[in-house]
Amino acid sequence: MERGWQYRRVTGEADLERLGAEGWELVTLRGDEWILKRPEPEPAERFTLEQRAAVLSDVAGHQGATRHLLNPDVAALIRRVNHTQMLLLADRGFPVPPLATVIDLSLTADIPTIPQVLQAIGPDLPADRLILAEEQRLASPTRWHEHHSYPVRVEAVPHLEFKRLARYAVGCIRTGDSTPYGNVLIVGG
Hints:
Blueprint: E1 5-11, H1 16-21, E2 25-30, E3 33-39, H2 43-51, H3 59-62, H4 72-80, E4 86-90, E5 101-104, H5 114-121, E6 127-133, H6 136-139, H7 141-148, E7 153-157, H8 159-166, E8 171-174, E9 184-188
Parallel strand pairs: 4-8, 5-8, 6-7
Antiparallel strand pairs: 1-3, 2-3, 4-9, 6-9
């Protein structure tokens, strides 16, 4: 898969030795501004880097969680989602990539919905963030706000990037949801 670049601007005196150790390389100088770049990390690496500062901040919040899932396949899938790994919650029309595990919970239109599944699995799956398609903001504003009320960080990416990230998921739970762009990637905490 093709990777992009991260860019960084540093004004004034730059610690090039430290920046070089972090993988940054100098692209150009503009007056006293240094422009640097480095390869964009793969998703799991990016999540790890972002979580590093917060990894111990909520240890107490994850202790004593009660397991309550009745579906043994869903419970087993949830247990396989580790730190920085992703679980896809898909609506009924999402083109699910070939993943090791796909559990189809869809019964009829909007039964169950993605928020219902998210609410049910939430206590069993410590999450770092939810990833949504940016298009959900305009196509489904009620769902957009509903996801933003979930007690973890929400990250929005273009729908095509969402589909690319979905290929990295550990597994998928397909729902009967019919909300446009309602899919969610849960990143394990």
